[in-house]
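Duplicate of #3305? Posting structure anyway:
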């Protein structure tokens, strides 16, 4: 499914339509992202990325980014704009998660040149990372979030799949169960028992939400044929190539390329029927995608959306389909007048009632 690179693009919305709105929550932050086609002077000529075919990303000079939007008045920045209202079926709730601490995070903290080390190829989680996974798992269960999520989308990397399974997967798996495990025991040398695929959402891998591509071995994935035995119940069917054809040894994907890919990913979400989705991905992908929404907002709200994610951090957001990219009808709206009968609107009654007369 290849999105058109010149229509239906995610854009930062002007103040007349509202921007990103925090919603009250007892358990985690929630903000609203709006999708609408950009006006002509903000049109982005971005490369098209396919879930089935990866095109070589262009250089930085090939991207035309829009000028930053600014709030139209001081009252806008003070949060005095009128609240926005959207049809529920034009919205999706996204629970964005950065993977837990990986071995590459620890080594790069000591020396950033470690990112170039072949020993960090497709880096797994550290023991501390698994503790972070356990803590987030407790949170999503205690908050009731696990019961709401209909789908888990995960970047096809060892550290993200380990995080996704550990947080959103089923309970313990034992041999002889009549289901596939989400993750086998000791996958990626993690000393973890197997996780069941019972009583949890389905999992699907999507290449569009991968980390910065190229140069760094920690961001190069293994072949899908290597992952399948480790994560038998994860769906890899949206990935076309067994080998990693997206990663290049000598070319690092530009920041604008990550943003373009993130925009394509968010637009692709409207092809999914699920309304509440968990997405387990990477710091760079989240930062460069979300900051494209960050202009023209109150500084505190911009920080809620755009700041870098910590390891194993979860933020909940609502994405709004202002551009009518999706086509799902409402499942909760009810047409009324069943059965049919007289139903003169009160406004019409007021128009027909002479002045000074009682109704």
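Output from current build:
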């Amino acid at each position: 499914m290849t999105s058109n690179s010149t229509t239906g693009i995610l854009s930062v919305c002007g103040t007349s339509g509202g921007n990103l709105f925090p919603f009250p929550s007892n358990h985690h932050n929630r903000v609203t992202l709006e999708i609408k086609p950009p006006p002509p002077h903000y049109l982005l000529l971005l490369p098209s990325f396919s879930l089935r075919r990866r095109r070589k990303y262009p250089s930085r000079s090939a991207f035309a980014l829009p000028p930053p939007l600014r709030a139209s008045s001081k009252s806008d920045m003070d949060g005095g704009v009128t609240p926005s209202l959207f049809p529920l079926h034009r919205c999706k709730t996204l629970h964005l998660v950065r993977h837990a601490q990986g071995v590459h995070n620890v080594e790069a903290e000591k020396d950033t040149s470690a990112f170039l080390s072949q020993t960090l190829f497709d880096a797994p989680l550290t023991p501390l990372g698994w503790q972070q996974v356990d803590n987030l798992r407790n949170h999503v269960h205690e908050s009731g979030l696990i019961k709401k999520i209909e789908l888990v989308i995960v970047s096809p990397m060892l550290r993200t799949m380990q995080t996704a399974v550990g947080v959103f997967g089923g309970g313990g798996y034992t041999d002889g169960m009549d289901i596939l495990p989400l993750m086998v025991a000791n996958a990626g040398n993690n000393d973890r028992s197997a996780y069941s695929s019972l009583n949890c959402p389905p999992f699907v891998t999507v290449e569009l939400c991968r980390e910065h591509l190229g140069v760094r071995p920690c961001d190069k994935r293994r072949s899908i044929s290597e992952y399948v035995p480790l994560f038998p119940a994860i769906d890899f069917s949206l990935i076309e190539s067994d080998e990693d054809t997206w990663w290049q040894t000598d070319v690092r994907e530009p920041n604008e390329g990550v943003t373009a890919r993130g925009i394509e990913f968010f637009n692709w979400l409207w092809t999914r029927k699920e309304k509440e989705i968990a997405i387990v991905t990477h710091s760079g992908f989240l930062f460069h995608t979300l900051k494209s929404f960050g202009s023209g907002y109150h500084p505190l709200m911009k920080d809620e959306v755009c700041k870098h994610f910590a390891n194993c951090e979860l933020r909940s957001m609502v994405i709004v389909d202002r551009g009518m990219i999706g086509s799902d009808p409402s499942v909760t709206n009810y047409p009324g007048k069943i059965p049919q009968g007289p139903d003169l609107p009160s406004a019409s009654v007021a128009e027909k009632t002479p002045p000074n007369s009682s109704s």
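Confirmed duplicate; merging threads. The first strand starts at residue 22 and ends at 23. Residues 1-24, 35-79 have pLDDT under 50 and may be disordered.
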